[in-house]
Amino acid sequence: MTLFPSRARFGLLALAVAVSLMSCSKNEADEVVPAGADDVNAGGAATVFSSGSNAYSLPAPNLRGASGAQHLAGDAAFERRFVTADGLGPLFINGNCTACHVRDGRGTAPLTPSDPVQMLFRLSLPGQDAHGGPRPAPGFGDQLQNRAIVGTAPEGQFSIQYVEQLRTLVDGLTVALRQPTYGIDAPYLPVPADLLLSPRVAPPVFGLGLLEAVREADIVALADENDANGDGISGRPNYVWDVAAQAPRLGRFGWKANQPSLRQQTAAAYNGDMGITTSLFPLEPAAGQSQAGNQPPGSAPADVADTELTNATFYLQTLGVPARRDVNNDQVRAGKALFISARCASCHVPRLSTSPAPGLPAEMASQTIYPYTDLLLHDMGAGLADNRPDFRAGGSEWRTPPLWGIGLSEVVNGHSTFLHDGRARSLTEAILWHGGEARASADAVGRMSTADRTKLLAFLKSL
Ligand SMILES: [Ca+2]
Ligand SMILES: [Ca+2]
Ligand SMILES: [Ca+2]
How far is the CA of 283 from the centre of ligand 1 (A)? Predict the structure, then answer.
């Protein structure tokens, strides 16, 4: 397997792309992503106007009545630092949500063992559980907890190694892509030989209430599972197990769209990331494992009550989305046209709308939003594959991540690492890793003139 297309392949495709770039006028771009005030208001009425380090952390300005107070209670829940006496562990990764979702933003992969851990490793064995989900690994479950309370052995430590591969683009720019290898050091038990491992950094958590309020039919309508229109891009929904409903449901959250709702995602994070039980997940991740000794498999009552789970969920449902910046800048406008002609917008769908739904905050309904995602799974090629299925998502499939707010990553989180495992150290690296259905898009960027690539990046930074 070669990771990168050869120069010969570049040559063959160059002509076709040059033609399609020329035929894409500014007007065509504006039709897909209209310019003007709406485009600025990325989150509709939930848009916030900050481009500082708090840009991801502000409540939607349209919250009404009791919503403001509940958002604040949820903010406290999201920041709450758990200790052993509150039920932290016995197995856990971090003691609070914000240790990974720093400033409601994005985590990065640790470079040294003393760096903070802002990621997790999902685990499983080949096959499926009773609900079509990943099959837990005996002794390790479905996630690696690298920390434990006193008297309990952690499951093991993550190990990450990178090998850099140089790639020279057509304009002469050389980019070093780091190819990671992952393993588990110092496991408390021998690791099963067929263990599957999926490394994932913490994604940003703003604007998610809007994504939860996009009608299921609208998302499914974007799918083109058998590529009927022949553009090389398919996209399909994930369907995952809804624990409360005891039924399959459309997946929306997580890097593989592996969680159906913010409530279940939140309860799963309490459980797997912090060892905090809830009514939804009453069993500790250590339940049934030898190192947990005589500790009870769960706690009654749960470590956090339903009100706290509800508030933390509400907080995530009601965070605002930062407004776009520099929309009328010429470079940015030209970059938008390139984004469309390189077919980025076929997956990173610019515009969606939200609808009212039972149980979701009314403020998030009936908004036109610009998230730059279709919430669908795409085959991203062998280079990005974790080779671990997650419900319907195959080993090389990932959910298109929203690009809104991505231009503020550096300001908010102090780093510019991207993709599911944080391997990309810049937006350019993130794009060049695109393979599979997105290979033609990445190749188009690889062939761009320096000036055009600068414009494309200027557009991404305006999001
Ligand atoms: Ca606990
Ligand atoms: Ca585990
Ligand atoms: Ca298609």
Answer: 9
